[in-house]
């Protein structure tokens, strides 16, 4: 599917209104320009109708998950009121700055944005658009919390989780949750802008999968994405202990642009550090790891090496045995900003 399906006539209206009102030329193809361009339709709860590739990458939301999203949900809850106050009129606004949040909970500040009203071919006011080039990532500590039921999702939200990893059968290492649990988790976290990462694992046991297993996993990825998951979590190895590149590539493709985390299968690899780098090369956004050791504290040196070797914007996330009492030590020792823990973190 072409993620640009449906971009017209909005793209033409956005570009024409921008040039007429601000003098900013969005270029021959605003969808591919080197600045964020996005637009919501006017209404009581404005919904996005357009977001170019720059904006999709920044918010970690491909076209099919960005379009139709209430624009207020792209700002953290504690910044929505100020955003609404600034953008409530129909005038051109210049020099706007504000904090935003991606689908997986990463916060950033947009700088020097220009906002303008969008009119259609009949000069009717139909939307509000914005563009900016400059942003600053806020390297804030972020905590992903494992949940295996609707009650645990609710508890994680109450306790302050920044993101949820959702699975069932945790004693077996976690397997793919049923669709009804995915739906409930997404609904429970939507207003808080807490992303739900759905585990894709068809069975307990090892991480060496048959072609039929991969077909099942691809179908599960499609279900999770369709139901509103912020991303998926998976991991595939070869019998020799390397990353199964073909299988991993197929799962990344099935995710249609939503972020993929390569889970602790990486710790079963013959060389966890090399496996993590391979996962990044295949398009995974994150690697969840204990550094090949039973716990992240024990694997701290390998985790640090992963962090140092990871490409820019790729995330190495320590997990296993993470508690409130060792979280800061892990961040300091590894350079990681995101951690993964169970609800025991808060207890």
Plain-language structure description:
With 347 residues, the chain is of the alpha/beta class. It folds into two domains: 10-137, PAS domain (Beta-Lactamase); 142-346, Alpha-Beta Barrel (TIM Barrel), CATH 3.20.20.380. It is 31% helix and 22% strand. It has eleven helices and 14 strands. The chain has helices at residues 10-22, 53-59, 63-66, 80-86, 150-159, 179-189, 211-226, 245-254, 272-281, 300-309, 327-334; strands spanning 36-41, 48-51, 93-101, 107-119, 125-132, 134-137, 142-147, 163-166, 195-199, 231-234, 260-262, 286-289, 315-318, 338-341. The chain has an eight-stranded parallel beta sheet. Strands 1, 2, 3, 4, 5 and 6 form a six-stranded antiparallel beta sheet that branches. Helix 5 runs parallel beside helix 6, helix 7 runs parallel beside helix 8 and helix 9 runs parallel beside helix 10 (300-309). It is elongated and about 60 Å long. The model has no long low-confidence stretch (mean pLDDT 95).
Rounded mean pLDDT score? 95
Looking at the overall shape, the CATH architecture of the largest domain is Alpha-Beta Barrel
What spatial order of strands do you see in the largest sheet? 13-12-11-10-9-8-7-14
Distance between the termini: 45 Å
Portion of residues in beta strands equals 15-25%
Strand elements, count: 14
What overall geometry do the principal axes of the alpha carbons give?
Answer: elongated
